[in-house]
Design the sequence.
């Protein structure tokens, strides 16, 4: 016999309680003074034979011991070997795209039954118990919960069932690889023609085949060509409330601002104003600053304290940031300057002599090139606008705040073949505690009766 | 007199209480208690040493020159000895107060009839022993003894009464006032021995209705007032039956041994049980 709970511990914890009850049991009863109680002993001797009385006394002790023992055995949850596993627990992570039919669940259970017999089969749809066998056809689909809370509920349920002989199966269309434990995980792989996978920093759309579909963003609709696989679309909108591609759509409960198109421009320079307008930015109250002083928290600093540079002429620009190179391309080729400031931060663009033209610190871009056209032609080069756009885009995109759970989920449901099995074999045991509970009740009843 | 015991108990003074009982009792049966010295001649007998000189008939002496004592009816000396159980169990429902009053009533009757009166109080030992006498201040002495004594200790009447037996004269009235809160076989054996010595044994078995209340016997721990021993009584057997059976046994043993058995429920008061007793024994006490 195997005890699921530590019976010695139970014994020692119950023993003082029993002794306490034995010692104080008299005090719990009514005590009345009486002139001479031996009357009853004397007379009863003539009614009940002495031997019989001793027998009853011994019988009472035996019943007490039996009752106590059965209680310990019941609380110790004893198990014996069996041909069957006590529980098969099927836990369904009920997600919006799961669309799991009860037939499919039935077939999964049948598969498990081929290998083992189960005393009881329990099916839970998130935390709700589902009657099994299914009375009518049912499709499992529901609200999306965080994976952590699903696992928490799942583990709690296993602890509540509290059996050493339990086969646990988790069914989901999500990936639970990082929660890999001693349970079986079945990943449901559904087919999707079109599926929106992400909206930021670019719109990601999965398509099963190449096709032309209509893409609706907020109220605007346009035709797009989707290639087979994952397609990327650059964001050309600042906010989002509704997105629809073919038959898949997402409606957001609140408007998601993908870009912050406001800039607090502290430089009264005509060229900057024109550039901001061209890029679609408005000037006003914002946490993104454009300044000539290093006293801002976030934004672009154009240095106005210039060092004299003896060298004047066209320089070869060396990029440290690959993205930046891509953005600016060769827009700086025609750059001429004769003065430059000494900026200390992480360099992004340097010339071949090591002068830092653009550098970056946590939340600030430092541009050492003069805005003054008498000292450089920086704002006139074709690289200026893309550089400004790149820098402002960097800040404005960071402000995007929305719940990514749905997109993480959409991303995961396309992954296939991630089912796994628990490594340890499930013990085949039978719970005997109910029998001992019944025996405990019988023994206690007899003890009180005698 | 329809007053029950609890009402009579309100009279704190034992002397007044007993007189009140006696007055009521005797007026109830319309017979005078003051019989005293009878002038009715009964017989002459020869003077023996120790006889009261007053009883010598001097006229007969002058005629016969022998000393004769004149005896009148009702004047023959009777010794009455009362044994009162003063163990702790007698405290239950004021049985001891009842017993004390009963003892005092007998003392008053004895005095009025000019009988010698002795008394003993016992528990597991002799607490007070007073041999029968006719002393003038006897009543006062009894009063003093009874006022100060409290019920305590265990009952071992069988042993104690056997110890007293040699001190008690033969052919006297012995009255036992007890609740039989001890081993029944032993105490009955001892009381029976008194009868063997030609004593007229009278037993007053005091019990209270409270002892028969059913709630005393169901799922309670009964604590012995004397020993402190507890006994759990469940509702499985009929304890009242056991009590009644015991009383029947006492009655039967008394009957078989010629002992006058009087069972008294103290709540009944004095009138009914005493009337019953005195009517039966009027030749002795009236």
Sequence:
């Amino acid at each position: 016999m195997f005890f699921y709970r530590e019976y010695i511990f139970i014994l020692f914890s119950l023993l003082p309680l029993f002794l306490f009850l034995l010692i104080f049991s008299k005090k719990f009863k009514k005590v009345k003074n009486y002139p001479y109680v031996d009357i009853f002993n004397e007379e009863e001797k003539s009614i009940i034979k002495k031997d019989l009385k001793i027998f009853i006394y011994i019988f009472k002790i035996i019943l007490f011991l039996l009752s106590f023992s059965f209680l310990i055995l019941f609380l110790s949850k004893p198990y014996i070997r069996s041909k069957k596993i006590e529980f098969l627990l099927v836990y369904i992570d009920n997600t919006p795209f799961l669309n799991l039919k009860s037939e499919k669940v039935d077939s999964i259970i049948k598969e498990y039954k081929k290998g083992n017999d189960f005393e009881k089969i329990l099916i839970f749809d998130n935390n709700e118990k589902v009657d099994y066998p299914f009375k009518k056809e049912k499709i499992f689909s529901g609200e999306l919960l965080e994976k952590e809370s699903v696992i928490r509920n799942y583990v709690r349920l296993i602890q509540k069932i509290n059996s050493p002989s339990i086969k646990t199966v988790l069914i989901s269309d999500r990936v639970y690889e990082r929660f890999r434990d001693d349970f079986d995980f079945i990943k449901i792989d559904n087919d999707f023609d079109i599926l929106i996978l992400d909206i930021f920093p670019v719109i990601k759309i999965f398509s099963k085949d190449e096709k032309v579909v209509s893409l609706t963003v907020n109220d605007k609709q346009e035709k797009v060509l989707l290639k087979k696989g994952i397609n990327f679309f650059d964001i050309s909108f600042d906010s989002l409330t509704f997105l629809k591609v073919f038959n898949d759509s997402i409606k957001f409960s609140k408007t998601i601002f993908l870009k912050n198109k406001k800039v607090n421009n502290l430089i009264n320079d005509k060229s900057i104003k024109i550039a901001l307008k061209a890029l679609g930015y408005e000037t006003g109250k914002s946490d993104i600053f454009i300044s000539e002083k290093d006293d801002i928290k976030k934004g672009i600093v154009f240095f106005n304290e210039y060092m004299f540079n003896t060298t004047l002429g066209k320089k070869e620009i060396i990029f440290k940031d690959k993205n930046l190179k891509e953005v600016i391309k060769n827009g700086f080729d025609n750059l001429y300057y004769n003065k430059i400031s000494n900026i200390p931060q992480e360099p992004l663009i340097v010339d071949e002599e090591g002068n830092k033209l653009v550098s970056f610190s946590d939340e600030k871009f430092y541009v050492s090139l003069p805005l003054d056209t008498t000292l450089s032609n920086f704002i006139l080069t074709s690289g200026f606008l893309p550089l400004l756009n790149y820098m402002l885009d960097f800040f404005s995109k960071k402000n995007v705040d929305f719940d990514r759970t749905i997109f993480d989920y959409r991303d995961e449901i396309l992954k296939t073949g991630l089912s796994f099995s628990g490594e340890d074999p499930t013990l085949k045991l039978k719970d005997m505690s109910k029998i001992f509970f019944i025996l405990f009740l019988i023994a206690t009843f007899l003890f009180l009766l005698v | 007199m329809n007053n029950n015991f609890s009402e009579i108990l309100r009279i704190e003074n034992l002397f007044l209480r007993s007189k009140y009982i006696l007055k009521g009792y005797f007026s109830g049966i319309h017979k005078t208690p003051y019989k005293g010295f009878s002038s009715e001649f009964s017989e002459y007998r020869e003077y023996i040493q120790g006889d009261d000189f007053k009883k010598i008939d001097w006229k007969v002496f002058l005629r016969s020159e022998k000393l004769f004592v004149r005896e009148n009816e009702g004047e023959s000396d009777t010794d009455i000895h009362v044994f009162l159980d003063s163990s702790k169990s007698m405290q239950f429902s004021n049985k001891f107060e009842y017993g004390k009053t009963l003892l005092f009533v007998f003392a008053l009757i004895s005095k009025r009839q000019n009988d010698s009166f002795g008394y003993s109080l016992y528990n597991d030992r002799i607490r007070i022993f007073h041999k029968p006498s006719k002393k003038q201040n006897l009543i006062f002495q009894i009063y003093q003894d009874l006022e100060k004594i409290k019920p305590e200790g265990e009952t071992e009447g069988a042993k104690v009464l056997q110890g007293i037996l040699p001190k008690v004269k033969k052919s006297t009235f012995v009255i036992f006032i007890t609740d039989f809160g001890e081993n029944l076989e032993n105490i009955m054996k001892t009381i029976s021995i008194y009868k063997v010595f030609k004593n007229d044994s009278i037993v007053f078995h005091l019990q209270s209705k409270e002892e028969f209340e059913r709630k005393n016997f169901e799922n309670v721990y009964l604590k012995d007032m004397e020993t402190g021993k507890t006994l759990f009584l469940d509702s499985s057997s009929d304890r009242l039956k056991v009590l009644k059976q015991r009383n029947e046994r006492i009655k039967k043993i008394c009957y078989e041994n010629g002992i006058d058995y009087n069972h008294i429920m103290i709540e009944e008061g004095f009138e009914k049980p005493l009337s019953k007793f005195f009517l039966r024994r009027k030749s002795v006490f009236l």
